Every structure is written in structure tokens, then in C-alpha cells.
## 1
Amino acid sequence: MRVLFVDADDAEIARVRDCLARSTPNIQVEVAHTIAEALAFLPADAAPAVDLLLISQALPDGDGLELAHVLRVERGIGLPVVLLADQRSEALIVRAAHEGVDDYLVRHDAYLHELPATLEKVHRQAVIARERVQLRMTTERLERLLATGSTVLYGLRMAGEALVATWVSDNIERLTGYTAAETMTPGWWAANLDPAMRDDVLAHSARLIADGQLSHEYRFRCRDGRMIWVRDELRVVPRRAAEALEVAGAWTDITANRRAEQLRSARAAVLDGVVASQPLPAILALIARSLEDLV
């Protein structure tokens, strides 16, 4: 951890450095004696060279909280801040909270014993806060991609001897007309498989646990009665021995591709019939069957 200590007293700086070197040698200390030096060390157009600020309340060219304000508000530098106050004051606590100070210590005879733990706590909290922001941003990006994409993601978990849905992305509703909550109803998936394909699909699905992964294509009935073609890809998630088996899956709507394939096959079959001089009724029957097979 790298800390910028802003304090005008060289003797106090030496005490802090000695304390941290003995108790937490992983903490490296940089020094600025004034607000001006601190601002020069932390330009607005460059990434901060430190992870945390330790600022004394009283500085030769102003108040330590003024420095915190300039860095946070005017320069947009969101480094965590620990304030060193000369005495406890309710007004100071209110000001410090307003300026976004993360923690503070009052200088007393034994405050150096509290300093290492305080710095590490504030740094740890800042790291966790950044990770939460990154996680939220990643989640929002994923949700936007799912909302506009044709691929539906879902999760399953083994409950007893059956796999049950634990999560389904919201874009399932745009694809099938069913809400995510409705799709997690036990039996929903099997009940909406094309009856002509249901037995084969269920038999094929039974290989998932043994093989660890599975990919198959089938027809599925939407809420409005339409049939769509789906490519369903599943993979067993690695786990520890005591954990329940989980599966990650993805649905992709391949209806347009299937329609194109069926049309090509139908055209080829009709052409073969014409070349073979089949009777017109037989050719018309073939065309009718091909059209019926289209989704």
C-alpha cells in the first residue's frame, strides 16, 4: 500500500514512518508538507501514484479538509482519506463526513498504535467499494447485452434427482412470451417441447450429467402457440465434492436458419421430383408436406 502523508512537522513524519516501518512494512510512505505540494504530487490529469491519503488537519497553507475537498470535488480524485485531527470535535466530524473523509484519528500519546490498523481498514474498504462498482458496471453491461440479444442464459441446480431452474435471463420473455419467473415453474420446459420431438429431446438430455456437456436443437412452443427452433447448449459447472451440481446453459433462437435449410431442402426435393417425371399430384403433396414442416 502506498500512502501520501501530508504534514508540515518533519519530526512527526519521522515518527509515523518509523511506526509503519516496524509494524506494517508493506506500507510505503510519500510525504508532502503543504497543500500545494500535495496538489503537485496529485495532478488532475494523471493516475494517482498512491493508494491512500493521510492528511493532517492543520497545514501551513490551509486546512486539511480543504485539500480533501479540492481533490475529491475539483479534481475528481477519489482516493480514500484518513484525517489526523489535533482534537476531537463534533463540528470537525460533520465537516469531515461532508468532504468524504473515510476515517479520522485524534492525535494523542498512543495514536500511532491505532494508525496501521486504521490505514489498512480504510484501504481494504476502498478496494471492496471499487470491486463493487466494477461488478455493478459489469452486471449492467451484461444485462444490456442480454436485453438486446437473441441468446438466453440460464442456470440449473440439482435438487434431489432432478435439475431445477435457478435463474433465467429476462430476455426469455421477448423470445417465448413467458416471463423469467414463469419459466422456472417445474415442468415448464418439458411441457412446451414439440410433442413430436419430446421423447428424443428428453432422452438426449439425460446424457448431460455423464458427459459434462450437451448441445442439441429442438422445436419449442411459445406462449402464442408459435413453434421456434432452439439450439440449447449446457455445461456442468466445476464444483467441490460437497456442493450441489449446477449447470450453465444458453438458448439461441435458430428459427431463421432452420427455415432457410428447410426451404432449400424443399426446393431440391421438388426439383428431383420434376426431373424424375413424378406425377403432378405427388409433387404437390411433397410441396404441401414441406410447407407444413416449416416453423
## 2
Amino acid sequence: MGGKEALRGFLYQGFASVLEALCHEGWDRIYIELDSKNDKVDIALEANHVIVKSIQVKSTINIFKKIESFPPNEIKSEEEAEICLSLTDHFKDRKLKEHLDWNRDIYEKLESFLRTNTDKKRAYQLLWSTHCSIAFAAGRILNSKEGINIFPVQKTATHGTELWDVKLSPGREYPKWKISDSGPVENKYDTALILNVTRNIHNDVINYVEESNIPVGRLIDCTLEENGATNFSVQDGTHASLLANSIYDAIGGRNMAERRAVLHIFAAAPNALMFFLGQNSMGFGKCILYEYDFEKRSSCTYSPSFDFTN
């Protein structure tokens, strides 16, 4: 990246780095362009005469991309992305239009957009106002084997809009899943994975599974162990990533017949968590995602979205 694009990258990251430094706790002195015999240090934080954090400003990060599928009057964010994929004309309110198909008309466009506009030499922030299924699919496309440095920007109930990247802090404990596993049932091998993160959807899922005659023999119900299902249950990007990774353990009790069958994924969760879950989903086997008519404008229940069974 060079010329105006490079300068803009430095400005973006310069502001981001200063804000990151000011939000960091436990320092009593800040240095700009600290003399260092090793790597270049643009910002350094000191506590009790010890450097506790060093930050480099690079022009190759903060390439903003946005994915939106909700109607414009529901997009309340003011952020501007450099590149935007709009899928709003494929939906009526939040429901996919009758003649369209999630895999053919949404996934293919999403995959083309993400693969065309990402490379391993840059780092990206992903903004969105979209369905959780699309966030999951984006993560699945940009799974860890792709080697793309990309993290989601999440709208939160307590801290506004935040970059949910992953920063492992030794000794920090996050709330884990409280998991209820019921099953198996004879001659039924599908599994329903229920993620009650922002709201409890257990009863809605049970009603839908029964009404739709889905051959579910095992229910894996996941809720956060401390705050339960609330808008602030997930604390940050690290927490979301850890929760997504631990789903492997949650579904690990399935027998061989169940693993060969279909995993039905129902979630009320932040899009960032769904993105991380999608990144880890290649080992789930066959799976189908579902969207709920939260606004009770159409079906008042679930409908399938992406189908990853072929």
C-alpha cells in the first residue's frame, strides 16, 4: 500500500494506537517514538519505571469492510467502510425474498466479496449490520487455514462499537458455557445446538423442531454460566473466541451415527461470536443454520438459512 492509501493507513492506525494506549490501565508515563535497540516503538507505556506495553503504528491495518443485509432504516451505525457488500435488495425486512436461495444467492456473493478483497499482506476490520448466519458464513470462508488477519467490529450494550480482536491475558478468567446435553434418542441421529447468549431461545427451538419433524435425537443447550442470556454476557473478542472454540467440547459427546448426521445450529448471539464459530466450523460435519423471525412480522418462528450438508 503506497501514496495516499499508505498515508490514510498511518492516520487510521495512529488514532487507533493512541486510543488503545489511553484505554490501557496501570501506566503512569507515556513515550512517543521511544528509543529502542530492537524493533521500532511508536508508543510505549511505563509503570513504575518498567515498560508495560509497546505499540507500533503500521499503515497496513484497518482496512475496513462492511457487510449489510438489514434494511437501511435498521442500520444505525455511522461508520464508513472502504469496501461494502450490500445484500439488502435480497431481503424483505429481514426475511430472504421468496425466489432466492441462501446458498446460491447469498453465500456465493459473500464468498466472492471476501476472497476478492482480502490478502495475507494486510489486516482487516469487519463491520456489519447483518444476520448471524451471514456472520457465521463469513467466518467459515475466512477460517484459520486461510491465514487472513481479520477481526470483527461488534456493537455492544455497554461500550458502544468495539474491535473484538483476540488478546489472551494470562490469569484472566471468563464465564464459560453451562451445557445441558440431552440424548441420544433411538432412531434419531440429528443434533440441535442451541446457543442462548443474548436471549434464551430454548423453547422456541423445541417448538420449531417438533413442528418441523426434524429427526433430532440430541439437544445441546448452551448458556453463559454467570449472567445467563443477556446483551452483555460476552465481554470482548477474546471471550467470544474462547466460547466459539469450546463448542468442539460441547458437541464432542455425539456418537458416530450422530456425527455423520446433521448438526442444526440455532443461535441468539453477537455476530462476532458467530464469526469465530464459523471459523471453527469446518470440523462440525454437516450443519444447517437457522434464522428467527424476531420481529414477528412473518412466520414468528425459525427458518433454515445456509445449508452445509453437501
## 3
Amino acid sequence: MKYGNSFLLGWACLLPFFLLLACAPKEAREKRKVYFGDLTDFIQDTVYLEKDAETAQLPAKFHYVPEAAALFALENGKLLQVPYPAFGSIRKTVLEKEGPDGIGPFSYGALFTPDFFFVLNSPKELIQLNYSGKVLKRIPFPAESNLPHSLFNTLKGQNMYFDSAKQSVVLPRVPFILKEESLRPQPWIWEADMLRDSLRPLETFTFPTVYEDFTDDVELGTFFNLYQETTGKHVISFPASDSLLRIGKEGKEWVFAASAAKLKFLRGKAVEQGDMMYFINDPESSRYGALQEDRYRSLVLRHVLVSEERQENLVRRDSRLLVFDPQLTLLAELKFDGARLSSQAFFTPTGMYVKMLQNESDDFVGYVRVNLIDLMH
């Protein structure tokens, strides 16, 4: 059989393409499928912590410290310690509010390490304490700042991190109300140097231009932060943005990380009550929430509130948990009712624990153990 020159020339041009395709890794040739399902399908079991008069409200997030074989949390001025993996009785240490070891009346945002922990006494200072409640160091926050209407805080699920090599704390300065002047490039991520007793800006970024429409909105005019120790990069999530902002030594990049659900971002409104004006968020608005990292399973999690429905005394929050690998490739989107399960979790070697928001007992608080290990394969 004879072939024309044009036919042979065509095959010669296509040959490098087929060779390249054959040599490419299988992962590059087969796009990974995203798993869609229910978060409750991954529940393994439930543990219960006993409450008492001093622990009427238990937090959604604890922090596992392997060296102490315990979970720790700060709640209403008390240091809570729970043995792990036994989940036994809660040990409580009441921290001083005033005096040399005082942490102030409005302290929150604890960060735990094997030897000490940190507390935000915002807007005043960052406090370092030992586990007996003795103050070791105080790093004052600037009295004046070019960041208006903002505080060092983690109230909505923002994160602090301790760099043991540098002996420094990475912490966010978050707008409690977004104003027009906040839309310019600002240093939103800071670093507290515990060796030099100093505080300095660490990372600067700009809110996307769409947030000009969300000034004064306390739910949509904020951000959430995550630091990936394995990659050395900061990841920023904005409530009304599908993409995540990733910041590293190479610069800044946007990574598409959207929910498949139909989202609508609606600005709230100001209402007058007596002599005061209050800004009320739109209950029908969607929003992206906090970022968390499960370092035991190398997963990044992003919470999404799709919608909220209220019927008489019943509330249903159509929520999603977006699950990513460390490169922010979407692995799964898991739906759940945010009125029944918390949007925040804590992580241990045996799984992720999520607080149950509707408990059948007044004496115990339940935490379901979720195992997402199968999503990694």
C-alpha cells in the first residue's frame, strides 16, 4: 500500500504528541474526579464530654498537644484540658483576669504549644503563659495603626501559628467592619517575635474590588487565613470570592476553589433601633467561611454556607465542606446541616472531631469523629 506525502507528513507531526502523552504521568492524563456526598456518611463514632456548672458551654475546637497526651481549649477565661485518647473528665484552670498574671476580661484565640500557650487580649496585647497560668511575656499591640477598624483576633475562625524555629507567632489583623480605606493594600498578617519582644507586618494583600459593594457588612467584609507549614505559604479565603489567594516567596496567585452549589452573595443593610444604627447581615446570603488544615491527613478544609432557612423555631443551614489536598486541588464537596454540626473542627491522629449543636442531654456535649482518609486515594 502506498501513502501520499501529506499523509506521512501528518503522522510525523502527530508522533511527538503521542510520545508525550504516553510518557506523561497517569495523574496528568486522567483528571481526578471530585467526590460529592454527605459529611455524615464519614462519621465513625461519637464521643461525649461531661459538662458541669463551670463548663456549661464547651468549645467546638480543641487543640491536640501530643507531648501532653491531651486536648486544650480556652473558654470563658478557663483553660480546659481533656485527656486524649481517653476523653475523660475535663480539668479546669481558672486564669486570672487582673494582676501580674491577668489576661483581661475579653481574652480569646488561644494557641497551644508543648511548653506554653498564647492568648489574645485584643486590642491590647499578645500574652504568653505556662500551663499553670503564669504569664511569661506580653507583646503589646500598636496603640495606633494605619489599619482602621481592625483588631488582632480569631473570633470567626481565623488562625494563629507558632514557628518554633523562629520563636515567633503568626497572627491575623482582621477588620471588624470593612471600610473604604481598608480596601487599599494593607499588612493583614503579622508576626510577633518572642525573642525580640517585637511585632512587625509579615504579609500584605488587597481585598478584591468586589468588596467595594460589601463595606460595613460584618459577615462578607472579612477574611480567613491559613498557613501551610509544608509549603511555607499563606492561604487567604474571602467570604464572597470563589478563589483562594495563595501567598509565597514566589509571589501571590489565585487558586480556583469554588463550591458546586449555586451561591448568592447579598449585602446586609443598616437598621435603626432606638437611637442606634445597626448593620444586619442578609440571612439569605451565601458566604465562604473559615479555612482549616488537617495535618494528620494532609487535607485543607473550607467551609461554605449556601443558604439558611427559618421556619418558626427551626433553623436549617445548608452547608458544605470543601476538601482539598495540600496543592489546593479539590477532592470532595460534602454537604451537612450547619444547624446540627459545627462548621469548625479539631484534629487528632484518629480523625477529625465535629461538635454536635443539637444535643439530647443537658449533661453532655457530643463530638462526632469523622474519617476522611478515603478521600485521599
## 4
Amino acid sequence: MGKSETLLIKEPKEIDIMTREVIRTDKAPAPVGPYNQAILASGQMLFVAGQIAIDPSLGDVVYTEDVVKQTEQVMSNIEAILTQAGATFADVVKTGVFLADMNDFAAVNAVYAKYFSEDTAPARACVEVSRLPKNVLVEIDCIAVIGG
């Protein structure tokens, strides 16, 4: 016996046009390459570029040997970008965590957990990479849904 499927076809009522807004704030570091801090798509989906431990007031990497303090700076940078876009950590649905050394996993998690409750913790991937920009120890990016 074959598998039965039902295909539902709806007539489009109107065409949705996706908008794209660049999000920038001086409360987070300027990008270190040809990209933006974040892009807000259709006023709802926020894509935050990977953040590293650059203090925006100094324009340079801080805490070069301390993954805990680097993670705190990264989360502060992400928070500034979320705020600029009208979002909070509760709106974050996905993060990507990139570590120079997987042995830092627990230390990074200890800081990361301060920003999310069990109910608001996003989906996440965490990988070890061979090298990060400016030789930092951690980089985190995220996707948020505003008003979702």
C-alpha cells in the first residue's frame, strides 16, 4: 500500500515584500570586516553578526587571556545590538558559539546562562574552531524574533 498525501494549495492574497534594515550602535564594536552589526529583516527577524571581546570605547580586544571576561564583553556587545533593534535576550531563538578551545565550554556556559532563563534559552550550536578573529577566545552570534 502506498503512502497517501494531501497537498493544500492556497491562492496568494497579497505579496509580502521583505524589508531589510541595517542595525548599528556605537555601544557595540564596529565590525572588523565588510559586514554590519546586525540586519533586521521585515521588522521581525534580527540577525546579529558574530561578536568578539572588543570594547567599543577602546576599539580593541580586551581580556586577551580570560575567557570569562571575554564572554561577558561579548554578551554586553550583543545586548547593545539587541537593544538598538528593540529586542532583548528573551527574543533570541538561536545562538552560535565559537570557541578557540572546547576546554572553555563550562566557563563560557557559566556566563552565557546569566542571560537566559530555562524558559527563554535559545537553540544553540557550540563548536571549537582553529582560530578566531584577532585571536580572541570566544565569538557568539545570534538570531532573534522580535514580537514573536
